């Protein structure tokens, strides 16, 4: 593994509290040795290339990369995701353990070949208060642009964001998942509408969550504004195999888009609109590596549950969890999205969107860890522990 | 003379609009609560009869009023950019298809998405039956109907509302205000039938109190591009997405 040491170039900015730090991480697998045995050997070393500018640091620990989670694709039972290579963990670190007003992180993550990567943090993503009065509050930002190859796996599993009083946080995360369709001469690639079943397709796990504030000091939803946008596109990996047919829709398919902007208004303070909830989370799983898990979670969370029925402002257990299926269908090379509940669009889901709100952040976090539990086995551990 | 013509045209579009938002127009809004039923059962909107809001709403408003304000804000920031864009780009079917694909990615809440398709299809069916193949500009009603029938369009409500209003010559601002009106009217009508929160007179008081918030929300939404569409009160969405897990329910969504 050639894990490049993070660059720590001195910041040229005169204002140490306002800086844009850029980072880039590329994960790739070495070409598989040519052998006659089928299926090919499961273990292919993963390489990582890292670049970052102060105060951002990127770190790929050896420990997580050398776990015993290396299993052959599809050899695992149950709903444990089967990855094609050892999963490497990328820690996104920031001096000061948080963002101060004006800080901006711009990170690119690329998963190539059959590599598997997990992006996480060491602790809560803290956003310190913006400066001055509400007229002069300076936002802190985080932009993440990711690309996942048709055999790749990427999980974004950070700790929750905590915005301090008067903080202003803007986040934009964009993931492009590439796929290779079946060849046109494949009998299953007909012109009739059918569930998306590509030759190869990348897989992603996305977790984005926020805690109301420093709950212990009763600082609840007291930030100035919190804006988060998560976008996932599904794109034909056109040039990967020369013999693949020209896709009818070379533009990427918008697969998932979720944008939330939280801020109090005079009529409706957030403390009121959020009722007793103190944690909001959204989870997306998509792709063949996590399809089993996505379908199991969709089934589990679609069950009818007793609710307290209006007596309190939260449901009985203080947890509000639900799931929507992500279904993709194709016809003659064109892919389309369908959303639906369990069994929607008449078949297995290709992915799942899970929403979770919790009145006790700790319980909400435990529930997220439980839901994603089967994932930890194949990525080499629980990064949220 | 021009003003007389304008007046006549205005009267004609007013009558068109009145028919479109009439609860007798069989769009199917009657069977939806826009998330209210789930919010009541999940405790976000505690049941119990509530009085009308004070003339100048001061926080905290009553739970039902608060729900309606949150719902109007969400619909304005998430749906209206698409309604407006469908109205504007409704000149070609191809651009409507691209727009609907974007909308489907945003509409990942399957309960809301299902309600959107049901009402959109109800709308185009009723509109074609009522108005024939009227087309002031853009894609004709029969063109939209055919696109939904062949599966070229799924028939999502915000997209079709924008395109239909354009085809019928309804002005853009009226298109957006009536969309928010219909959305809150649907929730309030559900609240009256649900019975635990409000009676019909109080519901009309609440509806009247929404006139200013609706107009403000429409103005606010003008600065939001399709790629910036967002949700401002996610808890309402979270509750609505839980609709299918309720044990007993009266409404589709």
Automatic annotation (TrEMBL), chain A:
<comment type="similarity">
    <text>Belongs to the UreD family.</text>
</comment>
<feature type="region of interest" description="Disordered">
    <location>
        <begin position="1"/>
        <end position="20"/>
    </location>
</feature>
<keyword id="KW-0143">Chaperone</keyword>
<dbReference type="Pfam" id="PF01774">
    <property type="entry name" value="UreD"/>
</dbReference>
<dbReference type="InterPro" id="IPR002669">
    <property type="entry name" value="UreD"/>
</dbReference>
<dbReference type="GO" id="GO:0016151">
    <property type="term" value="F:nickel cation binding"/>
</dbReference>
<feature type="compositionally biased region" description="Low complexity">
    <location>
        <begin position="7"/>
        <end position="20"/>
    </location>
</feature>
<protein>
    <recommendedName>
        <fullName>Urease accessory protein UreD</fullName>
    </recommendedName>
</protein>
Automatic annotation (TrEMBL), chain B:
<keyword id="KW-0143">Chaperone</keyword>
<keyword id="KW-0996">Nickel insertion</keyword>
<dbReference type="InterPro" id="IPR038277">
    <property type="entry name" value="UreF_sf"/>
</dbReference>
<dbReference type="Pfam" id="PF01730">
    <property type="entry name" value="UreF"/>
</dbReference>
<comment type="similarity">
    <text>Belongs to the UreF family.</text>
</comment>
<protein>
    <recommendedName>
        <fullName>Urease accessory protein UreF</fullName>
    </recommendedName>
</protein>
<dbReference type="GO" id="GO:0016151">
    <property type="term" value="F:nickel cation binding"/>
</dbReference>
<dbReference type="InterPro" id="IPR002639">
    <property type="entry name" value="UreF"/>
</dbReference>
């Amino acid at each position: 593994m050639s894990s490049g040491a993070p660059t720590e170039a001195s910041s040229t900015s005169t204002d140490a509290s306002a800086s844009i730090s850029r980072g880039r991480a590329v994960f790739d697998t070495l070409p598989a040795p040519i052998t006659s045995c089928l299926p090919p050997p499961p273990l292919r070393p993963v390489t990582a290339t890292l670049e970052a500018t102060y105060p951002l640091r990127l770190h790929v620990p050896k420990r997580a990369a050398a776990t015993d989670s290396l299993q052959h694709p599809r050899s695992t039972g149950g709903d444990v995701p089967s990855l094609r290579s050892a999963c490497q963990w990328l820690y996104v670190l920031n001096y000061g353990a948080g963002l101060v007003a004006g800080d901006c992180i711009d990170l690119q993550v690329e998963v190539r070949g059959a590599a598997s990567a997990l992006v996480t943090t060491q602790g809560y993503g803290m956003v310190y208060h913006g400066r001055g009065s509400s007229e002069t509050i300076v936002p802190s930002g985080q932009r993440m642009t990711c690309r996942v190859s048709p055999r790749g796996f990427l999980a974004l599993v950070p700790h929750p964001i905590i915005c301090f009083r008067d903080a202003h946080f803007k986040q934009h995360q964009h993931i492009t998942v590439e796929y290779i369709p079946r060849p046109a001469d494949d009998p299953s690639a007909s012109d009739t509408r059918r569930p998306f079943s590509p030759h190869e397709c990348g897989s992603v796990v996305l977790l984005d969550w926020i805690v109301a504030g420093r709950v212990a000091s009763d600082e609840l939803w007291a930030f100035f504004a919190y804006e988060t946008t998560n976008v996932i596109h599904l794109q034909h990996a056109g040039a990967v195999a020369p013999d693949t047919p020209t896709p009818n829709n070379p533009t990427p398919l918008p697969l998932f888009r979720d944008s939330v902007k939280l801020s109090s208004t005079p009529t409706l303070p957030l403390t009121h609109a959020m009722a007793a909830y103190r944690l909001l989370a959204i989870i997306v799983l998509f792709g063949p590596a996590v399809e089993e898990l996505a379908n199991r979670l969709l089934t589990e969370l679609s069950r009818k549950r007793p609710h307290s029925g209006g007596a309190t402002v939260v449901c009985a257990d203080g947890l509000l969890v639900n799931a929507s299926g992500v279904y993709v269908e194709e016809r003659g090379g064109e892919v389309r999205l369908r959303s639906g509940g369990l069994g929607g669009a008449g078949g297995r889901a290709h992915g799942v969107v899970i929403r979770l709100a919790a009145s006790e952040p700790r319980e909400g976090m435990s529930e997220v860890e439980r839901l994603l539990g089967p994932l930890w086995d194949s990525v080499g551990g629980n990064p949220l522990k | 003379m021009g003003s007389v013509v304008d007046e006549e045209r205005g009267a004609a579009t007013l009558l068109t609009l009145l028919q479109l938002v009439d609860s007798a127009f069989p769009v199917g809004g009657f069977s939806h609560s826009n998330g209210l039923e789930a919010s009541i059962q999940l405790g976000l909107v505690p049941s119990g009869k509530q009085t009308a809001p004070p003339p100048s709403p001061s926080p905290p408003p009553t739970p039902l009023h608060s729900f309606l304000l949150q719902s109007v804000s969400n619909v304005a920031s998430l749906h209206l950019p698409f309604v407006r864009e469908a109205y504007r780009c409704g000149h070609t079917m191809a651009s409507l298809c691209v727009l609907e694909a974007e909308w489907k990615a945003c509409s990942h809440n399957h309960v809301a998405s299902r309600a959107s398709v049901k009402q959109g299809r109800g709308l185009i069916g009723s509109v074609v039956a009522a108005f024939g193949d009227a087309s002031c500009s853009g894609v004709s009603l029969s063109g939209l109907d055919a696109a939904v029938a062949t599966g070229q369009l799924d028939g999502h409500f915000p997209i079709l509302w924008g395109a239909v209003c354009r085809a019928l010559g309804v002005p853009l601002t009226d298109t957006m205000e009536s969309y928010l009106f219909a959305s809150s009217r649907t929730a309030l009508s559900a609240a009256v039938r649900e019975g635990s929160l409000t009676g019909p007179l109080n519901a009309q008081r609440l509806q009247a109190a929404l006139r200013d918030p609706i107009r403000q929300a429409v103005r606010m939404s003008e600065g939001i591009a399709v790629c910036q569409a967002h949700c401002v009160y996610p808890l309402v969405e979270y509750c609505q997405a839980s609709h299918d897990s309720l044990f007993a329910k009266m409404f589709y969504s």
